[in-house]
Each structure stands twice: as structure tokens, then as C-alpha cells.
What we know:
The complex is a heterodimer of chains A (402) and B (64).
Chain A: E1 9-13, H1 17-28, E2 34-39, H2 54-57, E3 75-78, E4 82-86, E5 91-94, E6 99-101, E7 104-107, E8 111-113, E9 128-129, H3 134-143, E10 149-153, H4 157-168, E11 172-177, H5 184-201, E12 205-208, E13 212-217, E14 223-228, E15 233-235, E16 238-241, E17 245-247, E18 263-264, E19 270-272, E20 278-284, E21 289-290, H6 306-322, E22 334-339, E23 342-348, E24 355-362, E25 367-374, E26 377-384, H7 391-400
Parallel strand pairs in A: 1-2, 1-7, 2-3, 7-20, 9-16, 10-11, 10-16, 11-12, 18-21
Antiparallel strand pairs in A: 4-5, 5-6, 8-17, 13-14, 14-15, 19-20, 22-23, 23-26, 24-25, 25-26
Chain B: E1 2-5, H1 15-19, E2 24-26, E3 32-34, H2 43-52, E4 58-61
Antiparallel strand pairs in B: 1-4, 2-3
Bound molecules: flavin-adenine dinucleotide and iron/sulfur cluster (SF4).
Residues 13-14, 16-19, 38-41, 48-49, 51-52, 81-82, 108-111, 131-132, 158, 248, 251, 286-288, 304-306, 309, 335-337 of chain A line the site of flavin-adenine dinucleotide.
Amino acid sequence: MSAAGHPRDVVIVGASLAGLRAATTLRAEGFTGNLTLVGAEPHAPYDRPPLSKKFLTAQAPADTGLPVPDGLGACWLLGRSAVRLDPYSRIVTLADGTRLPYDGLLIATGAAARSGAVTGEPGPEQGVFTLRGRDDATALRAALTPGRGLLVVGAGFLGGEVAAAGRALGLGVTLVEAGAVPLERAIGAEAGAFVGMLHRKAGIDLCTGTTVTEYGTGPDGTLRGARLADGRLVAADVAVLALGATPATGWLAGSGIEAADGVRTDSRLRALFPDGSTVPGVVAAGDAARVPQPLADGAAPALGHWSGAVEQGAAAARTLLLGDAAPPYAEVPSFWSDVHGVRLRSVGLPALADTVKVHECDRPARRLEVSYHREGRLIGALTIGRTSRLAPYRVALAEYGV
Amino acid sequence: MRITVDLDLCESHGSCVFAAPEIFSFDDDDYLLYEAAPDDGLREAAEKAAASCPVRAITVAAAP
Ligand SMILES: Cc1cc2nc3c(=O)[nH]c(=O)nc-3n(C[C@H](O)[C@H](O)[C@H](O)COP(=O)(O)OP(=O)(O)OC[C@H]3O[C@@H](n4cnc5c(N)ncnc54)[C@H](O)[C@@H]3O)c2cc1C
Ligand code: SF4
């Protein structure tokens, strides 16, 4: 530590949204020490949300690079993965054997697409995709040619967007969802049914309450289709598994930090050991982290949202610099998704609601406004085509967040 | 202070409205309205809005 109490050597593992925002914040708040960013992907930091939206449908692939401020003064180790953390001697080890000592470490390794063979059997080698990074999106984009059949497994936010993109590109799309309506756990039955209506109106064959039990392949091993649990056969040349994501925290195995479902943090984003004590000098942010949410009375649900990565990256950086003097994390979670040309936007934690109130539901105009309540208290809100209605909910939710 | 929003980029995310409701708002059709020359006292809120915009449509500059 330097005289001012700031760390001298900060290592950020995960050179994407949360990591870059943390790096930017460190410099903006006066950190003058050595800053190293380690990223498994060879790419400079880029934005993921467009990858399931306009990156797939635009004539030319959209450039989704995140701007790196001039004068950031960081050492970039791209295309290199961290494989080990020793929190006692404070060293991160990379796959090529490089050892990086730190006195401040930020874990921002995000998440990886859950690929788990849906059928329990390994799927065909060609034609089945997951979507998390730019390379995935580039490969998928090349496969989405008009007239082909697209099977999307999982009608969550990502699956819904990919299905919509496929439809916009002129593919025949089947969207398979185990639940009764899309997104039921995330946003409830009412809003989920509304999204299902949007999919069907766009010409997507939405099959709910079922799963894929078997893939059909041609003689050359390429995908031809799938059989569903309800006995239906679906013809498809391309399948996308949109089954959610798991925190990319495998590299922490053996460190003593239990992180299978994300690194648990305290309210200042400091990483915790299983006994609840803080890991000295280590903070975590973004999809790799499980951060206590004031709205959830301090519980730490897995969220995986763009705004959370941005806000937590900045907050974790402040904790590295200020320790206990850093403000506790109190942002209201928020999320957006774009399907069939309408914007879905939520604030708060709709998944924790016990009651849902529908304030507006205009199917022809494709507008929806819903609020979520838990034990009589507002806990979230969601709009479709009505972002203008959301701000007052956000203000009300921020008031609990202290 | 001078605010510019590139309305070709703006996708009506509303993050700026959350961060700085004194400057940014929506009309009933989700189109963004904003104050182009807000008071300097709102600088911090304006910077926060610019930083939270997912498409980086907002520029904050000193008054000309
Ligand atoms: C296709 C797609 C669409 C999305 N759309 C939306 C949306 O519309 N709205 C929304 O709110 N959110 C959306 N999200 C979620 C949002 O993108 C994430 O919440 C955000 O990217 C999280 O940022 P992060 O920095 O925590 O993690 P990530 O962006 O996942 O970055 C983590 C980085 O760490 C690297 N890494 C992993 N392991 C290691 C290691 N061992 N060593 C070194 N580097 C490592 C990875 O390569 C990656 O670059 C979307 C996500 C995806 C994938
Ligand atoms: S945050 Fe950006 S995209 Fe969203 S309304 Fe404001 S300017 Fe537009």
C-alpha cells in the first residue's frame, strides 16, 4: 500500500464491461499505480447486448467495441486466462505460467453460456450453437441464412432475442420453452404471456411446456431436426441453446473462495470466504459476482444485467481505493431486452414478487405496464413499449435501497 | 454546461432519465426530451447519465 492507502498494483481479471468500467473508475478517482487487465478473449473490450440483436440482423456486423479512454495507462494481457488465485500470497497465475502479484484484485470474469446437452446425450457437432461472446455471434450469424430452420431452446431474454432475429432474417423459427409461458420465473405469468403473444404474432412457432429429447442428424453428422418431449418433430438446420449462463469462476477453485454460483461479496463488493470473512484486497463485480441487494433485504440473487456490471465495476473500484469509506452498493437493478422491434425494460427485482399488478395491457399497440409487489411492498416494475412509465417506479425503489 | 444527445444513436433506454431526471425525460411515446443547457450544479448527474447510457449517445461539455 502506498502512503495514501491506495494499492500500488491492481490486477483486473476479466477485460470486458465490468473490468473496463472498474479500470476507468480507478484512474478517474486518482489511482496512479500499476494497472493490469487480463482477458481470456483476444478482443479488446466489447459490448455483448448487441450480439443477440442488431449484430445478427444488420447488413454489416455492428462494431460493438467499448471505448477505452485515452491515457488509461493499463497493461493489457489479452488472449490469456487466469487459472489460479492464491489469496494468501496475493498472486494470480495465468495459463502460460505468468504470475501476477497484486495488492488489489478485481474479479470480473463474467459468465459462460450453459451448454449442457439438453437431451443428456452429446448433440450433433455441427449446427448447435451457444451465444456469449463475439466469436459465437459471428459463427451464428453466418449460419442464419434465410429459408433455413432455426430451433431455439429456452425462451428467456437471450433465446427470445435470437428467435426474433432469426425471424427477421427470414428463417422458420421454433422456440422451445419448458415453462408454461416464456420468462415466467423472471417476470411472471402475465408479462410472460404478453411476450409469448409477441413471438406468435411474429410467426414464431412457440412450443411451451416441453423440451428437446433427441436431435436428428444427417449422414454427415449435421443437424436435421429434433424431437420434443411431447412427441413433435421439428425440422431445423441450426439450433441455439439459450439455457442461461454460469459464472466463469472455475479458475478460483483451490483458492478457498467458494464461487460455483458466483463470488459472494459484502455490500462494498469485497469478496467473501465461505465463513463470511473478507478476502484481503479482493473485490468482485458483474456477472461473476453475487452482490447483496438492498431491495432483497441483503440477499444476493444472480442477475446478469448490463447496468449491474457497469455500476458494480465502478463501486468495486472505489472500494479498492477507499475501503470502508466507500459507499455501500445500493443501485436499483435494471434490465432491458428488445424483441420484434419493441423494448422491454424492467427495474427492481420482479422475480421476487408475490403479487403482480397490470396497469396497462394494450396488445394491438404492443404496450404493457406491470408492477411487482412482495409482502405488500413495491419490488419491481416492467414495461413493454412504455419506458416512459418506468422512472417513477425507479425513484420509489431507490428509496428502499438505503 | 451543454448537453448533446445523438438521437440517431438513442434507443430510448431511459438510463439517463434514471440518472438525471432533472435533465432527461420521455414523452408519452418513449421519445427522449432533454434540457440542452442545464445548470452547472447538475454536472455530476449529467456525467452519471452519460456514463450509464448503453449506446453512449450523450455528450457533456462546458457551456460555450
Ligand atoms: C448475447 C448477450 C446479450 C445480452 N443482452 C443484454 C441486454 O439486452 N440487457 C442487459 O441488461 N444485459 C444483457 N446481457 C448481459 C450483459 O452483457 C452482461 O451482464 C455483462 O456483459 C456482464 O459484464 P461482465 O464484465 O461482468 O462479464 P462479461 O461481459 O461476461 O466479461 C467477462 C470477461 O472475462 C473473461 N474471462 C472469463 N474467464 C476468464 C479468466 N479465467 N481469465 C481471464 N479472463 C476471463 C471473458 O472472456 C470475458 O471477456 C447480454 C449478454 C449476452 C451474452
Ligand atoms: S440512456 Fe442513452 S439511449 Fe437511453 S434514452 Fe438516454 S440517451 Fe437515449
